[in-house]
Design a protein that fits this description.
It is a single chain. This protein is α/β, with parallel strands linked by helices. The protein has four domains: 58 residues, Alpha-Beta Plaits, CATH 3.30.70; 262 residues, no CATH class; 42 residues, no CATH class; 89 residues, Beta-Lactamase. Helix content is 43%, strand content 14%. The strands form five sheets. Strands 13-12-16-15-14 form a five-stranded antiparallel sheet. The chain has a four-stranded parallel sheet with strand order 6-5-8-9, with helices on both faces. α14 packs across α15. The longest helix is centred in the C-terminal third of the chain and has 66 residues.
Length: 576
């Protein structure tokens, strides 16, 4: 069962979740992040920082609505951070609103926290544990069991208030009902529904964000609700559990004086630092309140209202509990072991590369020496070596290295600029040259150094470039002639939106154009020669015709004379 869902279409190669994840329980494949469920401690930081909201809490809300629609008895276990998570004037308004939604009872989880406090107080008074780490935060429990298992013996062997509450409610009200925990924490879902040591007591988990959306959907305005009442005994000082120092304050009130030194640690980075210190043997006989969220539960990942600082939230809850600075006395006792829980080593065997394998991975991304290791953290890992280890383990990709990919892009761009047969130049919004290829140097007889950052009009006409920049309508395949350089060119002028610049590609067709002109001139010369031959032939024909006409006339005269003479002679003979 997943607790955090993932929408791959929204993941945009930013690696922000990897950078934020304290335990690096995220793998990246094909540029998209995936949560490793068996390594995730469900702190929710990846959900909070994801700019595309690609990670979502897998909701139980439909299941809860089904319970209510099916007329089941549904009990709300309300985390004490509701006092600053939900906008209301009186706690009774929250109780009234939840009952309007269909909950049979609304109980504060703090009533179970009173028992958990009692268990902590007992451990402190017995003094047998070298160190005691509070066990209320499921993310901290996972952090220790998965990544610092040698310290699991120091976690107080006590269930959390949520599990204790579910167990108590089932015992008090019977099994023919449902317990729904409402709080600021997504890790509670695993604790309630997945972990075999603690599941079966809480039927569903919804967070404050979901609750607010449900209230809005149902048309229920918290601020307008007539105050009702909670259905639990007064938990008194245990309402301080969600604020930093709240657990220690409750234990102090329950245990009185003791010999343990108290330490309050919130936020995963500080938690990890403390655990490392403990592994070195630097801490002994300490009672440690530890929470994964900086500022504790009032800053949980499932609290929507961020308009108030955690300091104001802390003060608000402390003021509400100012007159409740003691433990409740009227809670029924529970048998020994009722609230116990074991913590153990859940760490996973992780394959580690050899030094040569690390160096080989680093060489693939251009890091041949230690000086090449920038340790820029853009990939999400604190060092290039740790990123290389993650690549070996299949959690990261080579292409996650931003400097390497930028250098690859620059190298490809340089190759194109150096090897392209077409002249390439780019100008910025001020029509100043920012790129100039080798072919452009040959074409225009200027070096890159000579023209860079100079106005384009000093080199060629910038009218087409300005037109494309203004209109964002590209020009393709336009034939132009530059009389200054005596060049014929086919130009493509393209607007580049991301860079807010204009790219020009020029294909030098001068040689082809000159050949065309030569061929045209040759054709004209051939036509003229043919015309001259035709003209000469016409003259000859005319001369021949003239001569033929003269000779024909003379011949006709002679023949006529000859004919007449013959006829005359014939007549004379007849007369004789």
């Amino acid at each position: 069962m997943k607790v955090i869902g993932f929408e791959a279409a929204q993941c945009k190669n930013c690696y922000k979740c990897v950078r934020t994840c304290a335990v690096k329980a995220i793998e990246v494949k094909n540029g998209q992040a995936q949560i490793l469920d068996d390594q995730c401690i469900l702190c929710g930081r990846c959900m909070e920082v994801c700019p595309q909201s690609a990670k979502k809490f897998v909701s139980d809300l439909d299941k809860v609505k089904y319970y209510i629609q099916n007329h089941e008895h549904v009990i709300a276990s309300l985390a004490p951070s509701y006092m600053v998570a939900l906008e209301h004037h009186h706690p009774g308004q929250v109780a009234a609103a939840l009952k309007q939604l269909g909950f049979t009872q609304v109980r504060e989880t703090s009533e179970a926290a009173a028992y958990v406090t009692g268990e902590y107080a007992r451990l402190v008074q017995e003094g047998n544990m070298k160190n005691i780490i509070t066990s209320c935060c499921p993310s901290v429990n996972d952090l220790i069991e998965l990544y610092h298992p040698e310290l699991a013996e120091y976690v107080a062997p006590v269930i959390s208030p949520m599990i204790a509450h579910g167990k108590m409610l089932h015992e008090e009200l019977g099994n023919n009902m449902r317990v729904v925990f409402i709080g600021p924490c997504i890790a509670k879902k695993r604790e309630a529904e997945i972990d075999s040591r603690t599941n079966g007591y809480v039927d569903a988990v919804i967070d404050f964000v979901e609750l607010e959306e449900w209230l809005e959907e149902a048309g229920i305005d918290l601020l307008s609700c007539k105050p009702g009442r909670m259905d639990n005994r007064n938990p008194k000082i245990n309402r301080l559990y969600p604020v930093s120092g709240g657990i220690l304050s409750a234990v102090k009130a329950a245990a009185g004086t003791h010999t343990y030194k108290t330490i309050m640690v919130h936020g995963l980075d500080d938690c990890i630092s403390l655990l490392e210190s403990m592994k070195k043997g630097e801490l002994e006989h300490c009672l440690i309140e530890m929470s994964a969220c900086r500022g504790s539960c009032i800053e949980g990942p499932a609290i929507a209202h961020r308009k108030h600082s955690r300091f104001l939230k802390k003060i608000t809850i402390e003021e509400l509990a100012v007159n409740e600075s003691e433990q409740p006395k009227d809670f029924p006792k529970k048998p020994e072991g009722y609230f116990s829980r074991e913590f153990h080593d859940r760490s996973q065997t992780v394959l580690m590369p050899t030094e040569e394998e690390i160096r080989e991975i680093l060489r693939k991304i251009g890091k041949n020496t230690e000086k090449d290791e920038l340790n820029c953290t853009a990939c999400g890992y604190p060092s290039c070596r740790e990123k290389a280890i993650a690549v070996y383990q299949g959690k990261a990709e080579l292409t996650m290295c931003m400097p390497y990919m930028q250098e690859q892009a620059r190298s490809m761009a340089r190759t194109i600029m150096d090897k392209s047969p077409d002249a390439i130049l780019a100008v910025d919004s001020d029509m100043r040259i920012v790129e100039f290829s080798k072919a452009a140097e040959v074409c225009f007889g200027k070096t890159r150094r000579e023209v860079k950052h100079k106005p384009l009009r000093d080199l060629i006409s910038d009218s087409d470039f300005r037109q494309v920049y203004r209109s964002h309508n590209n020009i393709y395949g336009k034939k132009v002639y530059d009389p200054h350089y005596q060049l014929y060119m086919i130009q493509d002028i393209i607007y580049m939106e991301e860079q807010d610049s204009v790219l020009g590609l020029f294909q030098n067709i001068t040689e082809e154009e000159l050949k065309k002109k030569q061929q045209y001139a040759l054709k004209l010369e051939t036509v003229e020669m043919a015309q001259e031959v035709i003209d000469r032939q016409m003259m000859v024909a005319q001369q021949i015709a003239s001569l033929l006409g003269e000779t024909t006339a003379e011949t006709k005269v002679s023949l006529t004379k000859l004919r007449n003479m013959i006829l005359t002679d014939e007549e004379k003979l007849e007369q004789t």
